[in-house]
Amino acid sequence: MLNVRVRYKNPFSRTDAEDTALYLTELLRLHGHKPDFRFYLIVAENRMFAVGSVEGDEKSERWTVKELNHIRDDEFRPYFLFFSPSPLPQGEYATAMYGGIKGKVEREKSAPLYFYLTGCDLRLTDEQQQAGATKEAVWDVFVVENNDGTATIRPLLSDENAVMVVRTRDLSAHQLSNLLADFVAEVFYA
Predict the structure, then answer these.
(1) What is the total count of domains within the chain?
(2) What is the DSSP string of the chain?
(3) CATH code: domain of residue 140
(4) pLDDT in tens, the chain (190 residues)
(5) Which domain holds residue 102?
C-alpha cells in the first residue's frame, strides 16, 4: 500500500519556501536511516502531500492510496489536483485523453476521496462543489531520493534542471532547513 502524509501549511511561516523546506527537513530526518528510499513532495496552495512517506508524525494526517491509475504521455505535467467524494466525469475524461494520475484515497479521519492529478484546469460544477469536490493548484512536485544519508532533490515542474545533493547526516536540522529554504526559494521564485 502506498501511504501519503498530508500536512497543512503553517500560517506562521514567513514564506512558502521556508514552510516547504521545514517539511522536507522533517521528512529527510524521518527517512534518513533508510537506504535507497524515494518519496515525492507535492506542494499545493494550502497543503503538502508526501507520497511514499511511511513514517508518521503528529502534525500530518495519514492517507492510504486504495486505487491508482497512472495514464501518462510525454507532455503530462501535474498542475492541478482535484478531490471529490464521488468520481468526477471531467476528471476521468481529462486523464484518459491528456494523461494524468487518478485513484482513490482512504483518509484517517473521514470518508474516502477520489483524486485526479491533471495537467489541465477543469471546471467543477456547483453541484460537485456543494458535494465537497475541491481543486488545488500544484506549485511544484519534488522527487527526493535518499541513499544512505545523501539526498538528491529535484523539482519536476518549475525547473527540471535544478538539483540539490546534500549529505543530510553531516548537517544539523537548522543547517539543512536553511539550505533547503534557499533551494526551494530559487525554484519557486525563479
Answers:
(1) 1
(2) -EEEEEEEPPTT-S-HHHHHHHHHHHHHHHHTTSTTEEEEEEEESSEEEEET-----TTSEEEEEEEEEEE--TT----EEEEESS--HHHHHHHHHH-EEEEEEEESSS--EEEEEESS--PPPHHHHHTT-EEEEEEEEEEEEEETTEEEEEESSS-TT--EEEEGGGS-HHHHHHHHHHHHHHHHH-
(3) 3.30.70
(4) 688 999 998 877 788 989 999 999 988 888 766 677 889 999 998 899 999 866 667 788 889 999 988 877 667 788 999 999 999 999 999 998 888 999 999 988 788 999 999 999 999 999 999 999 999 999 999 999 988 888 999 998 887 788 999 988 888 999 999 999 999 999 988 6
(5) 2-189
Q: Could you give the residue ranges of the DSSP H alpha helices within the chain?
A: 16-31, 89-98, 126-130, 173-189
Rounded-to-integer distance, Cα 102 and Cα 60, Å: 22
**Nearest residue to 124 (alpha-carbon basis) of 136, 139, 107:** 136
- Give CA–CA dist 187/91, Å, rounded: 28
What are 9's three cell numbers? Answer: 501549511
